[in-house]
Structure formats: structure tokens, C-alpha cells
Amino acid sequence: MTTPHQLRRPCCCNQLAEAGSGPFGNSPTHHEFLECGIARWIALDLGDRFIEIVFDTHIYTARNETVPVCDSIVCMVGTSYNGLAEFGLPLITKDDCSFHTLMNDIEGHLGPRLARPAVVSDRAAVLLNNTGRAITAVEWFWRYGSHDGKVRTSRFSNLGSSAQRDVLVGRSKVGRDIGTFILPGSKRLITERGIFGNNLDVLTPEELPRAQGYCGGWSGGSSCESEAELAAVELVLDLVILEDGLCIGPDESALYEVLNESLDLQRMAAAEALTALQAGASVGQIFEIVRPLARHGPPPPETHGKARHLGPIVQTFANEAIHHLINATDSDLLAFFERAAEPRSFELRRPR
User: Residue 22: which of 60, 52, 63 has the closest Cα?
Assistant: First the structure.
């Protein structure tokens, strides 16, 4: 066992654990573990450089197996955070003394399956839902500025499930499920790779047996610049859609407009398919109606990187329609398009 290094990060527990090989093989010359709940702090001596890495683990004693959840690299560039605290949506950063308690609570409610591993940098933040209302969907982005003046934006969203789509058109209400929505009082860890957490921190024991929905993280791009190249980093909550239809945030991606267009396009495509079905159209002809909506692709060049594409709502609808074309009975297929063609009874609105 090597001599312990001086850990620079404050920690609520000073119990040293025995050193191990760590998640990075034999490349670090030294590593020591500092136990802190389920988190382990690792100090790496890389010769001319000294950095800290957080390696969060969960131990499965039955198989004597350690399953990594995430690791964290210390970042040297300052980050600005633009939450929506005035609406009850603050971003809690690592400078806040409550951050690690909140993050450990998120990690302590992994749900029915482990979330995929994700790099958690010092730029990570915890989003608290103190609005008193459920969050139907949220979009956020990381903006990276380099010393040569270049700016790159990495966008993320948890929007795309059929349950969210049904809420946005008024066919159903927000359900108290595990992870489709962000319930009042719940929290999420936002990283440069996605969003992590679920509603197990607020669901009651009586609600758990019937709670469904997905949980875990939505992964996306991360900063491709090295720390030395970065001059500034910014995390922005761009648009948050609450269960009553209120859409808050700067909406730099114009998602509010795109979402309304997408929901209208979905309804029109469903109405066209329904009319065709009622006129005796074949499955192949219906497929040609919905196939263009299932295509994936980048936003058009004229949008300058903004989310002017149709987004996941339309693609989710198209994929669901294709699934019904393949697997559903004629009556079920007709009922699916009848439901999707109904006029919207739910209004999305911006603050006045």
C-alpha cells in the first residue's frame, strides 16, 4: 500500500479504505481511496500532474463485484450556472455544502436497473424541483467557449416518450411514475453526459408497486475541448415544461415553437393515415405516410445549430405508428390513429 496523498476536497468522512487497482487499470502510479458513504475519492499522482477523481461505486457482496456508476474529473475552468430559481428550479453546484448529500441520495435510489456510467465533472449540478408541480420535460445545454473565440453548444433533453406526448396534447395527466416525469420535490443530477436520477426520492411505499416509467440518464455529447483550450463554460436550463403547460426558460433553441409545430404535424399525419385507412389503404400506403417522420437527422444549416428540427416527439410517434402497422390488428391500428388524430385539448404557454 502506497503512502496516502493529501486530498484537497473536503469530505464528511475521514475513514481511509484500502487501496485498489481503480477503474483506470495500472496507468496511475498511485491511488488511495477515501470512503464517504457509497462514494470513494481517488487521488491520482500522474508524475508532473496531480488531480482528483471521484469514483462512485455500489458493492454487490453476493458476487463480490463492484459496479461503477460514475467517475468525476476535477475541472480548472470556471462555470456559470443559469437555473430558474425564480420559478423554483435552482441548480445546486459542488460549491454548495448540500451538493454531495443530494448526489448521494440520487445514487441511493437507482431504481429497477443501474443507470449507465457517466463522467461527472466538477461542473455537474443538482436540479431541484421546488415548483410544487411536476416537470413534464426539460431541455438544457452546455456552452463551451475556447480561447480562440470559438463557441460550441451541447444540447440535452428528456423529451420523447409517448407518456409525455399524451400529456402535452391533453390525452392524459402526469403520472406518479418512476422516471418519465420529474415529480414535485424530486431532484436530478445534470452532468456533461446526461441527466440522472428518478422519483424514488419522493414516491411513497404505497405508490411503488404501481409506479412505472423509465429511469436513468439521457446521454449526449460532451466537451471535446481540453481544459487548456477552454476559456468559459456555461450550463443553462433552456426550457422547462411544467404539468400545467407553463413553459419557462430562455428557450434559445426555440423548442417551444418547434414543439407546437411537432404536435400539430403529428396530429395531421395521424388524420391523413386515418382517412386513408378508412378508405381502404394498404399497410404499405400508411407506412409511406409516417415514414418521413421517423427519419433522424441534424437541424437544417439555416438554424445555426438551434433545434429547428422536428425533434423526438414526431419521431416517437412515427416509430410507434410503424410498430402498430407491423404488430396490431386492424381494429387496434384504426383505434391508434383515431386517438392520435384527436385535436389537442392542452395549451402550452409562455410566462406573461
Answer: 52
